[in-house]
Every structure is written in structure tokens, then in C-alpha cells.
Amino acid sequence: MNNAPLFHSDGDSPAPRKVALAYSGGLDTSCIIPWLKERYGCEVIAVAADVGQPDDLSGVEAKALASGASRCHVLDLREEFVRDFAFPTLRAGAIYERKYLLGTSIARPLIAKEQVRIALLEGCDAVAHGCTGKGNDQVRFELTYQALAPELAVIAPWRSWEIRSREDAIAYAESRGIPVTASKAKIYSVDGNLWHLSHEGGALEDPWTEPPADAHDLSVTPEDAPDQPVYVVVGFEQGTPVSLDGRAVEPVALVRALNALGAAHGVGRVDLLENRLVGMKSRGVYETPGGTILSTAHRELEHLTLDKPTMRQKDALALTYADLVYNGQWFTALREALDAFVAKTQEPVTGEVRLKLYKGGCVAVGRRSPYGLYQEDLATFGADDVYRQSDAEGFIRLFGLGQKVAAARDRRVRREQEAETGVPR
């Protein structure tokens, strides 16, 4: 493995001296530390990000140092993740391919941004990640590097090293004295944070197979959820969630509370065959209980507070926003421009939504806002003094004028053709 040529970022520059590695503490990134040192003779700075994943990060610094890193920065990014990445995506209404609430996608640009910050702080001349050459995450990391620090060289070991399997990685780690707790039987590829938990691989690679019970770690099955529904009221200010049941709650605590509530009722399970950016379809099982509750509530509040053309345009641009996030294009002028549009649309999106959670379902059963556009005296089927029904006659006549003109033209053309051919049309 050590006979490969040294890395050159542009064909002429020397091998990197110091590399900042996006470090999770798992098997792959633990192997990358000695691999970088052996291949390039460089110093390695590990950067571990806490975005609310289920992994215990208490020993990650010690493990990084034991694996050969010079230093390890452990960053608590949970607040920033929810406030500046998850909530803006929620406000935009961005959902990838009808189902996916973008849990992994929104975390990667933040992790890469902070990795770049540490790399520049430490005087690194390169950054590295442990993403495979088949996945989307390599693109998300590297587009962020290019946007924020294009002068840094990029190293992606999975695209060049000889490790090809979990067994290879375990053998490599053991031969270098790297602490290993992983087993050779890895059923799923798992990713998690405050927003979601995902499973890929294993039995899920057959799209005909129902997801096994062990493909869900957050939520109960809807069948095992309580037999009585629970109600929760979510409050928003300009499209941002700010309260639960009338009580102000900070972003991280709010998401945690809704995750626990939704998971207990089987809410937020998604089984998706998605189109990866690299061109293949993959299957992912996602659990996003809190995000599902918030997305449902936010959408319902927009139904109450947004006018028709604004909501239509926002829905159209939400698809673009979702693609940008999924494709790793967070740090782009277009995403910033879309955020400006979203911010304007969210000015009236203030109020509360009451939701009913039951057996995997999440349904809005009440909504109210001081900026609501619904007027009962206009919509009522009872007697009213504000809507003159006779006005509808003129409106319909004008609204259908174009159709009426086109129909008259078609009748005239048919008559002329019948007169010429003698054949009824």
C-alpha cells in the first residue's frame, strides 16, 4: 500500500505537510490517519463534529491521538446545525424526491465548513475525508472545500487506497495497533444527527424486501405505537419553530423533544429509492420524527398565511432548493438568493399548528395565525353580508373568455372544412 506515488494537488506541488481530516472515530477514518502519515509523511489534524449523531464522542479525541493524529478538535455544532442548516431548509420546504428531508445532506456542508476553518487555523495545506467514490458525500465535502478554501489540496483515500472491504480495513487497523471495536459483519451503513437517522445496505439493497426491524433504531413500528393519539402544538415566528404547547423552546431542545415524541408514535419513517448525484439509484431507510412533525406543521401554517401565487412559486423553487442541498451546493450564490426569497415569503408565517400523532401518522388538526388569510365570513356556506354571489357571473364570463373565443374559432374551422370536403367532422 505504500508504493503509490505521492499526492500532488496540481501536478507540480509537493506532497502535503499537514492534513486536516474529517474524523468520525469510526473504522475508516481511524485507518486514514496512519495511511496519510505513511503515504505522505505528513502531520494529521483530526476534526470531529458533534451534530447530534448517536455515536458517543467522549473518547474520540483519545482514539484519534492513539491512531496517530497530532491533535483532535472536537466541535459542538448542534446549535448551528439546527439553526443555520436544518431550519432554513425547513422554511424553504425543501424535500428531495417527494420524501427525503435531507438529514445527511444538510450536515455535510457544516462539517466541511468547520473542517476548513480548523485547517486554516492549523496551517494545513490539505484536507481529507473518508467518503467513498460511490456516494454523494464526497461531492458535498469537496464542493464546500472549493467554495471556502480552493487553495487547499483534497485527499480522498477511498478513491486511491487498496482497502476495498471492511475486512481489509480491520486487518489494516490491527496491523498498525489502531484501537478497533468494529466487527467484520457490518450489516448497514448508518448516518445520524439531530435531524434524522439513515440506514443503507444489507437487506435493503433488494428493493422488494420489506425493511427489517433492525433497519430502524429511533422509532417504534406504527403497529407497536400507543393505541391513543397524542396532540402537540408547534409555534412559529416567520417560519422558524420557536415553541411547543405554548412554551418557548430553544432549537436543539425543540428538535430533541419532537424526535422523542414522534419516535414514540412511529412518526417519520421513510423508505426511499433515490437518485444519487453520481448517477445510480440507491435505497435508504430514513427516520426523521421531529423533522416530519415540523415539516407538516410548517406546510399547514403556510396554507393559512400565504397567498396562492406566492405559495405556488415557493413550491416550485423548493424543488430547486432541495436539489442544491442534496448536490452539495450549499455555499452558492443561488442558495443565498433562494434564502432571500424564502425569507420574504416567511414574514407572515407566524402562528401555531396543532398536530395529532397516531400510529405513524402526523396530521394537522388545527392552525391559527394573526396573519391568516382565511376569513370565515367569506368562506361560509351560511348567510353572509360580505360576498355578493351575483358578482360571480361576470367573473366567470371574463375568466372563460379565452376558452369561449377558442371554441368559436374551432367551430368555424370545422364548418369551413366540412363545406370544402362534404365530410362531417
UniProtKB/TrEMBL annotation:
ATP binds at residues 22-30, 49, 130. One of its GO terms (biological process) is L-arginine biosynthetic process. Residues 18-179 form the Arginosuccinate synthase-like N-terminal domain. GO terms for cellular component: cytoplasm. L-citrulline binds at residues 100, 105, 136, 140, 189, 198, 274, 286. Gene3D superfamilies: Argininosuccinate synthetase, chain A, domain 2, HUPs, Single helix bin. GO terms for molecular function: argininosuccinate synthase activity; ATP binding. Its EC number is 6.3.4.5. It is an enzyme of class 6 (ligase). Pathway: Amino-acid biosynthesis; L-arginine biosynthesis; L-arginine from L-ornithine and carbamoyl phosphate: step 2/3. Belongs to the argininosuccinate synthase family. Type 1 subfamily. This is Argininosuccinate synthase.
